[in-house]
Amino acid sequence: MQSQGKLYFFCGKMGAGKSTQSRVVAAEKKAVLISEDDWLAAHFPTQITTFDEYIKYSNRIKPFVKSHVQSLLSIGVNVVMDFPANTVKQRTWFKLLCHEVKSEHELWYLDLSDEACLSHIAKRRVEKPERAMFDTEEVFHHVTQYFEAPAISEQLNVVRVSSDT
């Protein structure tokens, strides 16, 4: 019987370094990296100008992404998903995705302070000016109000990274 691939996904406040860490994990695990930002930019290049539009279009691609990822996992390919797992509902989606194909998972929880995240966001605004509209302190605070740290009751395989560097 062929072994299943393993899914790696990420939880952390805006600016915690989820995208950066996803690239590192993908390289280390020799995994396919699937980025929500890339999928949204390819399919909806001009439609996302507000947080509500982001939610709308993110939900629109999820059935296709889920099917694609499950196909990869089923043939033994490791997958890193650079999609947020910042709420119980989002993590439940990932967990179900894995459960349906009997795949293992790791949730990487990047547990950084608000100050560290805001510092990373300010740096990113300079390095990637195309993100400046969303990479603001106001958006950070808006998004952070929905953030839910992973709990033991969720029964996830968590790798916790705690660093404010």
TrEMBL record:
It comes from the Bacteria. Gene3D superfamilies: P-loop containing nucleotide triphosphate hydrolases. This is AAA family ATPase.
